[in-house]
Amino acid sequence: MSGRRYANQTAEERLADQKQRLITAAYELFGVLGYTDTRVVDICARASVSYRTFYECFPDRQRGRLELLRLVYEGCAEEAIRTVEEAVSRLHAYSPDRTRLAVDAYVLFVTGDPRRARVLYREAATGGEHLLPSRDRTAERLAALLGGTDHPQGRLVAKGVLAASEGLLANWAHTDTSTDDISAAAMHIAERAFDESEQAFNDASRYLRWKPASQESCRHIDTSVASTARMYDYLLGGKDNYAVDRAAVQRLIELMPESPDLAKANRAFMRRAVAFAAAAVGQFVDLGTGIPTSPNVDEVVRQMNPEVVVVGIDNDPIVLSHGRALRSGVQIMYGDVRKPQEVVRRLAKVIDFGRPVALVATSLFNFIPDDPVGIVGEFRAVMAPGSMLVISHGTDEGAPPEMVARFREVYADAVSPAVFRGVAQIEGIFDGFTLVEPGLVDVQHWRPDGVAERPLPIRMLGGIGHIPR
Fold it and tell me: Considering the domain 60-207 in this protein, what is its CATH number?
Protein backbone atom coordinates (compact mmCIF):
# COMPACT_ATOMS: atom_id res chain seq x y z
CA MET A 1 0.00 0.00 0.00
CA SER A 2 2.86 2.42 0.73
CA GLY A 3 3.91 2.38 -2.93
CA ARG A 4 0.51 3.48 -4.23
CA ARG A 5 0.50 7.11 -5.43
CA TYR A 6 -2.27 9.75 -5.43
CA ALA A 7 -1.67 12.86 -7.58
CA ASN A 8 2.04 11.96 -7.68
CA GLN A 9 2.17 11.43 -3.89
CA THR A 10 2.55 8.23 -1.90
CA ALA A 11 -0.16 7.50 0.65
CA GLU A 12 2.26 8.52 3.41
CA GLU A 13 3.14 11.79 1.68
CA ARG A 14 -0.53 12.53 1.07
CA LEU A 15 -1.40 11.92 4.73
CA ALA A 16 1.52 14.10 5.86
CA ASP A 17 0.30 16.89 3.59
CA GLN A 18 -3.24 16.61 4.95
CA LYS A 19 -1.90 16.62 8.52
CA GLN A 20 -0.01 19.85 7.82
CA ARG A 21 -3.19 21.41 6.40
CA LEU A 22 -5.01 20.44 9.59
CA ILE A 23 -2.26 22.06 11.69
CA THR A 24 -2.46 25.26 9.63
CA ALA A 25 -6.26 25.35 9.87
CA ALA A 26 -6.15 24.68 13.61
CA TYR A 27 -3.71 27.57 14.12
CA GLU A 28 -6.09 29.95 12.35
CA LEU A 29 -9.08 28.76 14.39
CA PHE A 30 -7.42 28.30 17.78
CA GLY A 31 -5.84 31.72 17.37
CA VAL A 32 -9.22 33.43 16.85
CA LEU A 33 -11.95 31.25 18.37
CA GLY A 34 -9.84 29.45 20.95
CA TYR A 35 -9.29 25.75 21.52
CA THR A 36 -12.46 25.20 23.53
CA ASP A 37 -14.79 26.75 20.95
CA THR A 38 -13.21 25.06 17.92
CA ARG A 39 -14.75 21.79 16.83
CA VAL A 40 -13.07 19.05 14.81
CA VAL A 41 -15.63 19.60 12.06
CA ASP A 42 -14.60 23.30 11.86
CA ILE A 43 -10.94 22.35 11.50
CA CYS A 44 -11.73 19.81 8.79
CA ALA A 45 -13.83 22.31 6.86
CA ARG A 46 -11.08 24.94 7.09
CA ALA A 47 -8.46 22.42 5.92
CA SER A 48 -10.73 20.93 3.23
CA VAL A 49 -10.19 17.40 4.51
CA SER A 50 -12.65 14.76 5.63
CA TYR A 51 -13.59 13.87 9.18
CA ARG A 52 -12.14 10.42 8.55
CA THR A 53 -8.82 11.92 7.48
CA PHE A 54 -8.59 13.81 10.77
CA TYR A 55 -8.68 10.58 12.73
CA GLU A 56 -6.22 8.94 10.35
CA CYS A 57 -3.81 11.75 11.24
CA PHE A 58 -4.77 11.76 14.93
CA PRO A 59 -5.99 8.24 15.80
CA ASP A 60 -6.51 8.86 19.53
CA ARG A 61 -10.16 9.93 19.60
CA GLN A 62 -9.91 11.12 23.19
CA ARG A 63 -6.79 13.24 22.75
CA GLY A 64 -6.57 13.88 19.00
CA ARG A 65 -7.64 17.51 19.21
CA LEU A 66 -5.33 18.07 22.17
CA GLU A 67 -2.42 16.60 20.22
CA LEU A 68 -3.24 19.00 17.40
CA LEU A 69 -3.07 21.89 19.87
CA ARG A 70 0.38 20.69 20.94
CA LEU A 71 1.62 20.69 17.35
CA VAL A 72 0.16 24.16 16.74
CA TYR A 73 1.83 25.46 19.91
CA GLU A 74 5.18 23.91 19.03
CA GLY A 75 5.02 25.39 15.52
CA CYS A 76 4.44 28.89 16.93
CA ALA A 77 7.11 28.43 19.58
CA GLU A 78 9.68 27.22 17.07
CA GLU A 79 9.02 30.22 14.84
CA ALA A 80 9.42 32.54 17.85
CA ILE A 81 12.72 30.91 18.78
CA ARG A 82 14.06 31.23 15.22
CA THR A 83 13.10 34.92 15.21
CA VAL A 84 14.94 35.60 18.47
CA GLU A 85 17.94 33.51 17.38
CA GLU A 86 18.29 35.65 14.27
CA ALA A 87 18.00 38.86 16.30
CA VAL A 88 20.82 37.95 18.72
CA SER A 89 23.01 35.98 16.32
CA ARG A 90 25.81 38.58 16.45
CA LEU A 91 25.80 39.03 20.25
CA HIS A 92 26.95 35.77 21.84
CA ALA A 93 27.94 36.99 25.30
CA TYR A 94 25.36 37.79 27.95
CA SER A 95 24.78 41.56 28.22
CA PRO A 96 21.95 44.02 28.73
CA ASP A 97 22.10 44.84 25.02
CA ARG A 98 21.59 41.19 24.06
CA THR A 99 18.65 40.83 26.40
CA ARG A 100 16.98 44.03 25.23
CA LEU A 101 17.43 43.02 21.60
CA ALA A 102 16.02 39.57 22.25
CA VAL A 103 13.08 40.90 24.27
CA ASP A 104 12.22 43.39 21.56
CA ALA A 105 12.35 40.72 18.83
CA TYR A 106 10.22 38.34 20.90
CA VAL A 107 7.55 40.91 21.75
CA LEU A 108 7.38 42.16 18.16
CA PHE A 109 7.02 38.58 16.92
CA VAL A 110 4.18 37.72 19.30
CA THR A 111 2.32 41.00 18.81
CA GLY A 112 2.78 40.83 15.04
CA ASP A 113 -0.20 38.48 14.93
CA PRO A 114 -2.70 38.20 17.81
CA ARG A 115 -3.24 34.56 16.90
CA ARG A 116 0.30 33.86 18.04
CA ALA A 117 -0.32 35.58 21.37
CA ARG A 118 -3.44 33.55 21.92
CA VAL A 119 -1.89 30.20 20.97
CA LEU A 120 1.35 30.72 22.90
CA TYR A 121 -0.15 32.10 26.09
CA ARG A 122 -3.87 31.49 26.40
CA GLU A 123 -4.58 28.27 24.52
CA ALA A 124 -1.34 26.58 25.59
CA ALA A 125 -2.53 26.86 29.19
CA THR A 126 -5.76 25.11 28.14
CA GLY A 127 -3.67 22.10 27.15
CA GLY A 128 -2.68 21.48 30.77
CA GLU A 129 -0.23 18.64 31.45
CA HIS A 130 -0.28 17.50 27.81
CA LEU A 131 1.50 20.67 26.73
CA LEU A 132 3.60 21.17 29.86
CA PRO A 133 6.75 19.45 28.52
CA SER A 134 6.58 21.50 25.33
CA ARG A 135 6.07 24.73 27.25
CA ASP A 136 9.00 23.93 29.58
CA ARG A 137 11.31 23.20 26.63
CA THR A 138 10.27 26.46 24.97
CA ALA A 139 10.88 28.44 28.15
CA GLU A 140 14.36 26.92 28.58
CA ARG A 141 15.35 27.64 24.97
CA LEU A 142 14.03 31.20 25.10
CA ALA A 143 15.70 31.75 28.46
CA ALA A 144 19.03 30.75 26.94
CA LEU A 145 18.51 33.18 24.07
CA LEU A 146 17.27 36.08 26.19
CA GLY A 147 19.83 35.73 28.96
CA GLY A 148 22.73 33.85 27.47
CA THR A 149 23.69 30.24 28.15
CA ASP A 150 26.19 30.46 31.00
CA HIS A 151 25.26 33.40 33.20
CA PRO A 152 22.99 32.73 36.23
CA GLN A 153 21.70 36.28 36.32
CA GLY A 154 20.92 36.06 32.62
CA ARG A 155 18.64 33.09 33.32
CA LEU A 156 16.85 35.10 36.01
CA VAL A 157 16.33 37.94 33.56
CA ALA A 158 15.00 35.58 30.92
CA LYS A 159 12.65 33.71 33.25
CA GLY A 160 11.40 37.02 34.60
CA VAL A 161 10.66 38.40 31.14
CA LEU A 162 8.82 35.28 30.08
CA ALA A 163 6.77 34.95 33.26
CA ALA A 164 5.81 38.60 33.57
CA SER A 165 4.95 38.94 29.87
CA GLU A 166 2.52 36.01 29.86
CA GLY A 167 -0.66 37.79 30.95
CA LEU A 168 0.29 40.93 29.07
CA LEU A 169 0.70 39.21 25.71
CA ALA A 170 -2.25 36.88 26.20
CA ASN A 171 -4.62 39.81 26.65
CA TRP A 172 -3.13 41.95 23.90
CA ALA A 173 -5.08 40.20 21.13
CA HIS A 174 -8.43 41.34 22.58
CA THR A 175 -7.72 44.83 23.92
CA ASP A 176 -6.80 48.24 22.58
CA THR A 177 -3.35 47.95 24.16
CA SER A 178 -0.57 49.57 22.15
CA THR A 179 2.24 47.23 21.13
CA ASP A 180 4.60 50.01 22.21
CA ASP A 181 3.21 49.64 25.74
CA ILE A 182 3.94 45.91 25.69
CA SER A 183 7.52 46.38 24.49
CA ALA A 184 8.14 49.08 27.11
CA ALA A 185 6.75 46.89 29.88
CA ALA A 186 8.81 43.88 28.79
CA MET A 187 11.93 46.04 28.68
CA HIS A 188 11.09 47.33 32.16
CA ILE A 189 11.26 43.90 33.71
CA ALA A 190 14.53 43.14 31.93
CA GLU A 191 16.10 46.32 33.28
CA ARG A 192 14.80 45.74 36.81
CA ALA A 193 16.16 42.20 36.85
CA PHE A 194 19.67 43.50 36.19
CA ASP A 195 19.68 44.65 39.81
CA GLU A 196 21.14 41.21 40.74
CA SER A 197 18.17 40.86 43.08
CA GLU A 198 15.33 38.38 42.94
CA GLN A 199 13.19 41.03 44.63
CA ALA A 200 13.60 43.15 41.51
CA PHE A 201 12.07 40.33 39.48
CA ASN A 202 9.14 40.09 41.88
CA ASP A 203 8.61 43.86 41.83
CA ALA A 204 8.68 43.91 38.04
CA SER A 205 6.23 41.02 37.87
CA ARG A 206 3.77 42.97 40.02
CA TYR A 207 4.35 46.06 37.88
CA LEU A 208 3.21 44.15 34.82
CA ARG A 209 -0.12 42.97 36.20
CA TRP A 210 -2.58 43.64 33.38
CA LYS A 211 -6.27 44.35 33.41
CA PRO A 212 -8.44 41.55 31.97
CA ALA A 213 -9.75 41.92 28.47
CA SER A 214 -13.08 43.67 28.20
CA GLN A 215 -16.21 41.56 28.04
CA GLU A 216 -17.26 43.22 24.80
CA SER A 217 -14.07 42.54 22.89
CA CYS A 218 -13.76 38.93 24.15
CA ARG A 219 -17.30 37.86 23.51
CA HIS A 220 -17.95 34.46 21.95
CA ILE A 221 -17.60 34.13 18.18
CA ASP A 222 -20.52 32.14 16.80
CA THR A 223 -19.45 30.34 13.63
CA SER A 224 -22.86 28.73 13.23
CA VAL A 225 -24.36 32.05 12.05
CA ALA A 226 -23.29 33.87 8.90
CA SER A 227 -21.44 37.15 9.44
CA THR A 228 -21.95 40.06 7.04
CA ALA A 229 -18.22 40.90 7.31
CA ARG A 230 -17.17 37.35 6.46
CA MET A 231 -19.75 37.11 3.67
CA TYR A 232 -18.33 40.30 2.16
CA ASP A 233 -14.83 38.84 2.49
CA TYR A 234 -15.93 35.76 0.53
CA LEU A 235 -17.65 37.87 -2.13
CA LEU A 236 -14.35 39.72 -2.62
CA GLY A 237 -12.45 36.44 -2.96
CA GLY A 238 -11.05 36.35 0.58
CA LYS A 239 -10.36 33.28 2.74
CA ASP A 240 -11.30 34.54 6.21
CA ASN A 241 -14.76 32.99 6.24
CA TYR A 242 -16.56 29.82 7.27
CA ALA A 243 -18.83 27.30 5.62
CA VAL A 244 -21.94 29.06 6.94
CA ASP A 245 -20.80 32.34 5.32
CA ARG A 246 -20.04 30.68 2.00
CA ALA A 247 -23.41 28.93 2.01
CA ALA A 248 -25.18 32.27 2.55
CA VAL A 249 -23.23 33.88 -0.29
CA GLN A 250 -24.13 31.00 -2.60
CA ARG A 251 -27.79 31.75 -1.92
CA LEU A 252 -27.14 35.38 -2.92
CA ILE A 253 -25.42 34.28 -6.11
CA GLU A 254 -28.35 32.04 -6.97
CA LEU A 255 -30.59 35.11 -6.70
CA MET A 256 -28.21 37.45 -8.52
CA PRO A 257 -25.17 35.86 -10.19
CA GLU A 258 -23.53 39.31 -10.33
CA SER A 259 -23.40 39.58 -6.52
CA PRO A 260 -19.57 39.31 -6.42
CA ASP A 261 -19.41 42.01 -9.12
CA LEU A 262 -21.51 44.33 -6.95
CA ALA A 263 -19.21 43.75 -3.96
CA LYS A 264 -16.15 44.48 -6.11
CA ALA A 265 -17.77 47.61 -7.59
CA ASN A 266 -18.47 48.83 -4.06
CA ARG A 267 -14.86 48.16 -3.09
CA ALA A 268 -13.61 50.03 -6.16
CA PHE A 269 -15.82 52.99 -5.22
CA MET A 270 -14.24 53.00 -1.76
CA ARG A 271 -10.75 53.18 -3.27
CA ARG A 272 -11.64 56.09 -5.57
CA ALA A 273 -13.57 57.95 -2.88
CA VAL A 274 -10.93 57.78 -0.14
CA ALA A 275 -8.20 58.71 -2.62
CA PHE A 276 -10.26 61.80 -3.46
CA ALA A 277 -10.69 62.62 0.24
CA ALA A 278 -7.01 62.04 1.03
CA ALA A 279 -6.07 64.99 -1.17
CA ALA A 280 -7.65 67.29 1.42
CA VAL A 281 -7.91 65.36 4.73
CA GLY A 282 -5.16 63.86 6.92
CA GLN A 283 -7.33 61.76 9.31
CA PHE A 284 -9.64 58.85 8.44
CA VAL A 285 -12.12 56.91 10.54
CA ASP A 286 -13.20 53.67 8.86
CA LEU A 287 -16.55 52.70 10.40
CA GLY A 288 -17.35 49.00 10.08
CA THR A 289 -13.81 48.48 8.83
CA GLY A 290 -14.34 44.81 7.95
CA ILE A 291 -11.90 41.97 7.38
CA PRO A 292 -8.69 43.24 5.72
CA THR A 293 -8.81 42.89 1.92
CA SER A 294 -6.03 44.71 0.11
CA PRO A 295 -6.04 47.50 -0.78
CA ASN A 296 -7.64 48.73 2.44
CA VAL A 297 -8.49 52.35 3.27
CA ASP A 298 -5.09 52.92 4.89
CA GLU A 299 -3.19 51.50 1.91
CA VAL A 300 -4.99 53.77 -0.52
CA VAL A 301 -4.74 57.01 1.45
CA ARG A 302 -1.08 56.49 2.38
CA GLN A 303 -0.20 56.56 -1.29
CA MET A 304 -1.42 60.16 -1.16
CA ASN A 305 -0.08 61.03 2.30
CA PRO A 306 2.24 58.63 4.19
CA GLU A 307 1.60 60.52 7.46
CA VAL A 308 -2.18 60.12 7.41
CA VAL A 309 -3.85 58.82 10.59
CA VAL A 310 -6.26 55.90 10.07
CA VAL A 311 -8.49 54.35 12.76
CA GLY A 312 -10.75 51.36 12.12
CA ILE A 313 -13.92 50.77 14.15
CA ASP A 314 -15.79 47.45 14.32
CA ASN A 315 -17.63 45.21 16.76
CA ASP A 316 -16.95 41.86 15.06
CA PRO A 317 -14.35 39.88 17.08
CA ILE A 318 -12.83 38.26 13.98
CA VAL A 319 -12.55 41.64 12.25
CA LEU A 320 -10.79 43.06 15.33
CA SER A 321 -8.38 40.15 15.55
CA HIS A 322 -7.51 40.04 11.84
CA GLY A 323 -7.31 43.82 11.54
CA ARG A 324 -4.87 44.11 14.43
CA ALA A 325 -2.78 41.31 12.96
CA LEU A 326 -2.66 42.40 9.34
CA ARG A 327 -3.07 46.19 9.15
CA SER A 328 0.23 47.68 10.24
CA GLY A 329 0.10 51.26 11.46
CA VAL A 330 -3.69 51.30 11.82
CA GLN A 331 -5.37 51.46 15.21
CA ILE A 332 -8.27 48.99 15.17
CA MET A 333 -10.72 49.78 17.99
CA TYR A 334 -13.81 48.05 19.28
CA GLY A 335 -16.90 50.17 18.76
CA ASP A 336 -20.62 49.75 18.11
CA VAL A 337 -21.68 52.38 15.57
CA ARG A 338 -25.22 52.17 16.94
CA LYS A 339 -23.78 53.90 20.03
CA PRO A 340 -22.09 56.83 18.29
CA GLN A 341 -21.48 58.90 21.42
CA GLU A 342 -19.37 56.08 22.91
CA VAL A 343 -17.46 55.70 19.65
CA VAL A 344 -16.79 59.45 19.49
CA ARG A 345 -15.44 59.38 23.07
CA ARG A 346 -13.02 56.60 22.16
CA LEU A 347 -11.98 58.28 18.92
CA ALA A 348 -11.23 61.55 20.72
CA LYS A 349 -8.16 59.85 22.23
CA VAL A 350 -6.56 59.36 18.81
CA ILE A 351 -8.38 61.71 16.40
CA ASP A 352 -8.04 65.50 16.54
CA PHE A 353 -11.59 66.65 15.83
CA GLY A 354 -10.31 70.21 15.67
CA ARG A 355 -8.91 69.32 12.25
CA PRO A 356 -10.75 67.90 9.20
CA VAL A 357 -11.43 64.18 9.32
CA ALA A 358 -12.95 61.80 6.77
CA LEU A 359 -15.65 59.44 8.03
CA VAL A 360 -15.87 56.33 5.85
CA ALA A 361 -19.06 54.23 6.02
CA THR A 362 -19.14 52.08 2.90
CA SER A 363 -21.79 49.36 2.85
CA LEU A 364 -22.38 49.90 6.56
CA PHE A 365 -25.83 51.36 7.05
CA ASN A 366 -27.49 48.78 4.83
CA PHE A 367 -26.90 46.39 7.76
CA ILE A 368 -28.06 48.77 10.51
CA PRO A 369 -31.82 49.23 10.99
CA ASP A 370 -31.25 52.16 13.38
CA ASP A 371 -31.65 55.72 12.13
CA PRO A 372 -28.46 56.48 10.14
CA VAL A 373 -29.22 60.21 10.08
CA GLY A 374 -29.10 60.35 13.88
CA ILE A 375 -25.94 58.23 14.02
CA VAL A 376 -24.06 60.37 11.50
CA GLY A 377 -25.38 63.49 13.22
CA GLU A 378 -23.48 62.59 16.40
CA PHE A 379 -20.24 62.47 14.41
CA ARG A 380 -21.15 65.56 12.41
CA ALA A 381 -21.51 67.54 15.64
CA VAL A 382 -17.80 67.16 16.46
CA MET A 383 -16.33 67.28 12.94
CA ALA A 384 -14.45 70.40 11.84
CA PRO A 385 -15.14 72.36 8.63
CA GLY A 386 -13.43 70.67 5.70
CA SER A 387 -14.34 67.21 7.03
CA MET A 388 -15.82 64.61 4.68
CA LEU A 389 -18.32 61.76 4.76
CA VAL A 390 -17.97 58.77 2.40
CA ILE A 391 -21.04 56.55 2.11
CA SER A 392 -22.22 53.66 -0.05
CA HIS A 393 -25.62 52.11 0.53
CA GLY A 394 -27.91 49.62 -1.18
CA THR A 395 -31.28 50.78 -2.49
CA ASP A 396 -34.37 48.80 -3.44
CA GLU A 397 -35.60 51.44 -5.87
CA GLY A 398 -35.83 49.94 -9.34
CA ALA A 399 -35.03 46.43 -8.10
CA PRO A 400 -37.39 43.45 -8.60
CA PRO A 401 -39.44 43.25 -5.35
CA GLU A 402 -39.15 39.46 -5.21
CA MET A 403 -35.35 39.63 -5.44
CA VAL A 404 -35.20 42.24 -2.67
CA ALA A 405 -37.44 40.10 -0.46
CA ARG A 406 -35.24 37.04 -0.97
CA PHE A 407 -32.08 39.03 -0.30
CA ARG A 408 -33.63 40.03 3.00
CA GLU A 409 -34.37 36.38 3.74
CA VAL A 410 -30.72 35.43 3.31
CA TYR A 411 -29.52 38.15 5.66
CA ALA A 412 -32.31 37.41 8.14
CA ASP A 413 -30.30 34.29 9.01
CA ALA A 414 -27.08 36.29 9.44
CA VAL A 415 -25.89 38.38 12.39
CA SER A 416 -27.21 41.57 10.77
CA PRO A 417 -30.29 42.11 8.58
CA ALA A 418 -30.18 43.61 5.09
CA VAL A 419 -31.68 47.11 5.12
CA PHE A 420 -32.54 48.76 1.80
CA ARG A 421 -33.42 52.44 1.71
CA GLY A 422 -34.79 54.72 -0.94
CA VAL A 423 -32.61 57.26 -2.75
CA ALA A 424 -34.10 60.19 -0.81
CA GLN A 425 -33.46 58.37 2.49
CA ILE A 426 -29.83 57.76 1.58
CA GLU A 427 -29.41 61.41 0.56
CA GLY A 428 -30.80 62.33 3.98
CA ILE A 429 -27.80 60.68 5.66
CA PHE A 430 -25.71 63.54 4.22
CA ASP A 431 -27.69 66.09 6.25
CA GLY A 432 -25.27 68.88 7.21
CA PHE A 433 -22.87 67.94 4.40
CA THR A 434 -22.69 69.23 0.83
CA LEU A 435 -22.47 66.51 -1.80
CA VAL A 436 -19.51 66.79 -4.16
CA GLU A 437 -19.93 66.08 -7.87
CA PRO A 438 -21.35 63.87 -9.27
CA GLY A 439 -23.56 63.61 -6.17
CA LEU A 440 -25.21 60.40 -5.00
CA VAL A 441 -25.01 57.93 -7.91
CA ASP A 442 -24.51 54.24 -8.62
CA VAL A 443 -21.07 53.31 -7.30
CA GLN A 444 -20.02 52.26 -10.80
CA HIS A 445 -20.69 55.84 -12.00
CA TRP A 446 -18.89 57.74 -9.23
CA ARG A 447 -15.81 59.17 -10.95
CA PRO A 448 -14.93 55.88 -12.70
CA ASP A 449 -11.34 55.24 -13.76
CA GLY A 450 -12.49 54.30 -17.25
CA VAL A 451 -15.80 53.40 -18.85
CA ALA A 452 -18.39 52.96 -16.12
CA GLU A 453 -19.87 49.49 -15.70
CA ARG A 454 -23.60 49.11 -15.91
CA PRO A 455 -25.64 49.10 -12.68
CA LEU A 456 -26.92 45.71 -11.51
CA PRO A 457 -30.46 44.64 -10.50
CA ILE A 458 -29.65 45.45 -6.85
CA ARG A 459 -28.13 48.93 -6.91
CA MET A 460 -25.46 50.31 -4.62
CA LEU A 461 -25.31 54.09 -4.41
CA GLY A 462 -22.27 56.08 -3.33
CA GLY A 463 -21.25 59.65 -2.67
CA ILE A 464 -19.04 62.04 -0.72
CA GLY A 465 -20.25 64.97 1.33
CA HIS A 466 -18.12 67.71 2.86
CA ILE A 467 -18.61 70.32 5.54
CA PRO A 468 -17.96 73.72 3.92
CA ARG A 469 -15.08 75.69 5.42
Answer: 1.10.357
